[in-house]
Design goal:
Spore Coat Polysaccharide Biosynthesis Protein SpsA, Chain A; 7-stranded mixed β-sheet; two-stranded antiparallel ribbon; 14 helices; 11 strands; globular
């Protein structure tokens, strides 16, 4: 792989379709700036709601907004009904316009540490994904295991041959770090998605699996020590918004959000806002351990490596 020395740094978000995702993204960016006040790169946002970000974001001089409309989304998807394909497509699009180190982050995240060391993990030989979840042959996901059982998946792209099996690992893609010179591996991930769609595998996490497999051809490092991904308690965005903007106004609450803040235990727990990102984590684990059923907690924990602090924090 040809290596272009380029240390430009970009933190990339995709915030489309529903305004609630814009709320999440703004909070994530605010948490980033709180821990990275001297960041010498750019925050890039792909969005169909530019006005929202111009209204709510700090440090606009460090922000690049790339507007994308429904027509462009449909054009990129080219008939595919798998909306999460957009993540890989837009990261490829970004790599055609910019060069350097890219740290893609899902909106339902907040930063718990400065990113200096995390960006150092991204280079010509290393990718970054949020955390390791499980080995495919563990059968945690039966659909994936059934697909790979007794099969070596072979993919050819641009004259190169790649093989994948049940011995590969699944990683969470709430964080995706790569150097743009390694963008061809994103093309490999798209080719893998094509294979999965061709075989009609119905799973929300197909793009995650595709990235995990494609990136396995180099080395994968993790980011969960720097970024907290609260996918298992997304209603917590209400607390984050209140923390960063000192108000509950302007945030659109859906039924899950309303039920969350109406719960007596949650109401009591969030009555005092945390003072740091570490306190946010502790508050989340307190709520999860008290309010979630044993089955729900089990289903969350199976998506985290047993060595991770997240696995250990959920009772």
């Amino acid at each position: 792989m040809f290596w272009r020395k380029n240390d430009n740094k970009y933190v990339v978000y995709i915030s489309l379709i529903e305004e609630i995702y814009c709320h999440e993204t703004v909070c994530s960016i605010c948490s980033f700036f709180s821990l990275n006040p001297t960041f010498d790169g750019k925050i890039v946002i792909y969005t169909d709601n530019e006005d929202f970000f111009l209204k709510h974001l700090p440090n606009l001089e460090k922000i690049i907004i790339l507007s994308i409309d429904k027509e462009r989304i449909n054009q990129l998807l080219s008939g595919s009904e798998y909306i999460y394909r957009l993540k890989i497509l837009l990261l490829l699009d970004f790599s055609m316009q910019y060069s350097g180190k890219v740290l893609f982050v899902d909106g339902d995240t907040f930063f718990i540490k400065n990113t200096k060391q995390l960006f150092k993990r991204i280079d010509s030989k290393n990718f970054v994904l949020h955390c390791c979840e499980y080995k495919i042959d563990s059968k945690i996901n039966e659909n994936y295991y059934s697909f790979f059982a007794n099969r070596i998946l072979k993919v050819n792209i641009k004259g190169k041959h790649f093989e994948f099996s049940e011995k590969n690992y699944m990683y969470n893609s709430g964080v995706v770090g790569f150097h743009t010179s390694n963008a061809p591996f994103l093309e490999l991930a798209l080719a893998l998605l094509d294979e999965f769609e061709l075989h009609k595998i119905q799973e929300k996490t197909l793009e995650q699996l595709a990235l995990s497999l494609a990136f396995s051809k180099l080395k994968i490092k993790t980011a969960y020590d720097t970024v907290f991904h609260y996918w298992f308690i997304k209603m917590y965005r209400v607390v984050l918004w209140q923390y960063f903007f000192k108000t509950k106004e302007s945030i659109t609450l859906n039924q899950s959000d309303l039920g969350f803040i109406a719960d007596d235990f949650v109401k009591k727990t969030i009555a005092t806002l945390p003072s740091s990102s570490r306190d946010f984590m502790n508050q989340i684990f307190l709520i999860v351990n008290y309010c979630y059923t044993a089955t729900t907690k089990f289903n969350i924990k199976k998506n985290f490596d047993k060595k991770s602090y997240i696995f250990k924090k959920i009772n």
